[in-house]
């Protein structure tokens, strides 16, 4: 192994230790309650390592959020892989997304802290970057199969993803998250059902 490759491996390992440690601490107590000094101490690193790899705690949080979004997208993609047809894929994908949004870690990091730490526009851009492609691909397939009325898939995809994110926020903030989840899922399925072709 070359020295350059060893250095790249060390860099990746250091970044991942910082992300994993920060993710655990942010999930437990939230961004504001976790000082950067605690993150590096827990990770067994120095403040200089944090500065070198991320610049500051906010950028480390951004990396944590990006990793969490990839994990959620992977969960939804796994649900889609088990679906029998595009309508089943849509309903299973929606259910998997809402399942993920009931996870306390997701509630804390993605739905509570991310909008405040990153700002609304950046938060929504990251959400869209990870989930929008799956939504649009599913819509394209359903429209090609005649399950859904032909519409601009990118526009409908943005609207459906926005509705799902709003539903997730409602669930996260509800006094009874389980009841809110049932109501939100029913409403989202009704919205999606309104896009079905009349023969469906």
From TrEMBL:
Species of origin: Streptomyces cylindrosporus
Signal peptide coordinates: none
Start-end of DNA-binding region: 35-54
Domain of life, source organism: Bacteria
Residues of the HTH tetR-type domain: 12-72
Protein's UniProt name: TetR family transcriptional regulator
PROSITE patterns: HTH_TETR_2
Keyword Lyase belongs to the record: no
Gene3D superfamilies, per database record: Tetracycline Repressor, domain 2
Alphabetic keyword roster: DNA-binding, Transcription, Transcription regulation
